[in-house]
Design a protein that fits this description.
This protein has helices spanning 10-21, 28-38, 44-67, 99-113, 115-120, 139-150, 159-162, 167-182, 207-221, 241-246, 258-268, 277-286, 292-309, 313-326, 330-341, 348-355, 359-380; strands at residues 84-86, 128-132, 154-158, 187-191, 228-233, 249-252. It is of the alpha/beta class and 381 residues long.
Length: 381
């Protein structure tokens, strides 16, 4: 094809040759996509032809990279694997999310499924995402879910575990894992990102670690479009400000709310287990301050007890709730009884039976509540 007059060519050709002849062949499609976008207005025929080539090549390159069996990188001294590989299946249950998180995760997956369509328009899917939130709210599980829906292996690098007393070795280990992930189709999760991506103005950090942060930022910028880099942290306040700008997407995982806790409990119970709705509502109140990880442990423990004791799961749940209530201070028992009474279908008598709080006490609380409500309405009126 004759070179269009509007195509300067020199710098693009040299950059492309450098990528193709070096060890960054996986970045060639990414660079060509940028060239296509740059010349969409001045040389539309060139941009369109590059887009067609990228679309035709995407399927073949993905298949080739997926079939390449590379040995997992290891530490040079201990010979232990630096990264853990998982292969989540499509049969895994979808994690419980808030509506906002669900939209973010679904967008990442949908973009990958429509990568060829995006490439045809000179666009790329999300290459990197940062998951932030307290422990146990589903960040790692979300990475597994994304990998399962994309039919890709999941590589997990726990940065807090790979940190070495010899910081030079830590840098080499991290680079080895990043290079390994970039040479194949996969989802890479950098867990505990704050272990190395701390603020570079922190006076307590030494130069080698600050240089490692700089390298990590460059890697995020240059991550190949057919790979997906995820990172997770429980301490976003520790991250270097530049880290936030590097990720294509920031997903904030909040603590679970009442409705999400109910759905999680139902899912952890197996979905097919017969248990009254009343008990799930009560458990959602009791587990209100827990994260998904702790809730799952409690529910799975009840399922095991039910199996071992040859009892109905509903009986185990009822016994657990009674034991839980007895361990609470009196004030908390009354508060819980009041909350139970607010559940549709739970009578005052039933709330008293479950918590051991007398109906007279509940009536008094109800009267006090009504008086306070009337007083507020009178003031506003």
């Amino acid at each position: 094809m004759a070179e269009p007059k509007t195509f300067r060519g020199t710098e693009e050709f040299i950059a492309l040759a450098r990528l193709a002849l070096g060890e960054r062949q996986q970045d060639v499609p990414l660079y060509l996509g940028k060239v296509a976008r740059r010349y969409r207005a001045s040389a539309p025929e060139l941009a369109e032809e590059i887009g067609v080539l990228l679309k035709n090549a995407s399927g073949r390159s993905s298949a080739l990279r997926r079939e390449t069996a590379l040995p997992l990188p290891v530490d040079s001294d201990s010979r232990l694997h630096l990264v853990r590989m998982e292969r989540p299946t499509r049969e895994m249950p979808e994690p419980v999310y808030s509506p906002e998180v669900a939209r973010e995760i679904e967008t990442i997956i949908r973009e990958r499924h429509q990568a060829e369509r995006l490439a045809g328009a000179g666009l790329e899917p999300t290459r990197s995402a940062l998951f932030i939130g307290p422990p146990g709210v589903g960040k790692t599980m979300s990475a597994r879910w994304i990998a399962s829906q994309l039919d890709l292996p999941l590589l997990i690098l726990d940065l807090s575990a790979v940190m070495s007393s010899f910081l030079g070795r830590t840098g080499n280990n991290v680079r080895a894992v990043l290079d390994y992930a970039k040479r194949q189709s996969c989802v890479l999760l950098l867990d505990e990102l704050d272990a190395i991506a701390k603020r570079r103005d922190d006076a307590t950090e030494i130069g080698e670690l600050k240089r490692l942060v700089t390298v990590l930022l460059q890697e995020i910028d240059e991550w190949p479009a057919d790979g997906l880099l995820l990172a997770a942290t429980n301490h976003p306040e520790l991250l270097d400000p530049a880290v936030w700008r590097r990720f294509d997407s920031i997903v904030s995982f909040p603590a679970p709310q009442r409705g999400e806790i109910e759905r999680a409990i139902y899912g952890y119970l197996g979905g097919e287990i017969e248990i009254g709705r009343e008990w799930i509502d009560i458990m959602s109140i009791i587990f209100g301050s827990m994260n998904f990880s702790d809730i799952k442990k409690r529910v799975m423990g009840l399922r095991r007890d039910s199996m071992m004791n040859n009892r109905d799961i509903g009986e185990e749940v009822e016994d657990y709730i009674h034991r839980f209530v007895k361990s609470l201070p009196r004030a908390d028992q009354i508060s819980l009884a009041t909350k139970l009474y607010s559940i549709k279908g739970v009578s005052q008598r039933r709330a008293a039976e479950i918590t051991g709080v007398s109906r007279d006490t509940l009536r008094k609380r109800e009267i006090i509540k009504e008086v306070k409500t009337d007083a507020r309405e009178g003031t506003h009126g």
